[in-house]
C-alpha cells in the first residue's frame, strides 16, 4: 500500500506531540527537498482551491444536508450538531448517535461536496459555513471531528451567543507543525494527499481511511466500518477535497482561542496517527475554560473504537456547562 507508506514516512518526520521535540536538521532538509521538487504542482492545486474558496458569501444559505434525529426538537432536550471530517459524511457518527439519541436532539451535517451534499458546489469556507449553520441550528452544542472542528471553532468564535459549547475530537487549532507549535504533522502530508488524489482518487481515499484507523487496538474493525460507511452516500467531490486539504494545511486560530467565549472540550486519541494527541491539551490551555481528555487506546476516530467513553465525556461536559449555557442563551 504505497500511499500509506508515503503518509507514514511524512508522519515520521513531523514533530511528535507527546515528546515536544523540534524537527531535526535532517527532517527539515528532507521537507525542503520535497517542497522544492513538488512546488509547481502544489501551487497550481492550492491556487485553484483558494480561488474557489474566496467566492463564498456568508449571507448565502447553502443546500447542505442536515439530518435531525434523537429527541424531538421541542422536547426541551439539549441539541448537538455533529460535523464530520475530510472526505467523510455524517453517517460515520452512527455509533455515537445511537448513544446520544435518547438524551439529545442530534443534527448530522453533510458539508458541501460530501455525502448527501456531494453535488453542493458551495466553497468549503469555515467562516461562511458556520454562519449558515448557526442560523439553522441555534442554541446547540457543536461537535467537530478533525476538519469539521474548523467549522465548529468558527461557530464558537464568531457566534458565541448561539453556541452552547464546543466539543473538538481529533481536531486542532493548527494541523501542521511549526517552530512554535510542535503538535502537528509535516506540511507535506496534506500536499502529498492532494497529488495522490489526482493520480488515484479512490485508492487515495481508502489509504486515508487506513491512516484514520491506525493506532486503534480495534483498527481492523474500525477500518471495515469506515470503508462500509465512507462511500455509502457516494464519493465526495474532488474539488471539495482539494479545498479541504488547503484548509488543513493553512488553518491556524491559535491567536483567537484566548477570546473564545464558550466552554470547550478537546478529545484526542493517544494513538492518533494524523493529529498528535498533544495538540488538544495545548489548545485547551489557550481557550478560557477549555478542558482536554486523552483516550489512551484510541486513534483518529475515537467515537468508533471508544464510543461509550466519548459519549460519557460529552454527557459530563453538557452536565457541567448546561446551566451557564442556558443563562448565556437567555441573554442573547
From TrEMBL:
Compositionally biased tracts (Basic and acidic residues) = 32-46
Similarity remark: Belongs to the AB hydrolase superfamily. Carboxylesterase BioH family.
Name of the protein described by the UniProt record: Pimeloyl-[acyl-carrier protein] methyl ester esterase
Q: Note the NCBIfam families from the entry.
A: bioH
Q: Which UniProt keywords apply?
A: Biotin biosynthesis, Cytoplasm, Hydrolase, Serine esterase
Q: Which residues form the AB hydrolase-1 domain?
A: 78-304
Location of the region described as Disordered in the Swiss-Prot/TrEMBL record: 15-72
Q: Top EC class per UniProt?
A: hydrolase
| Main localization (coarse) | cytoplasm
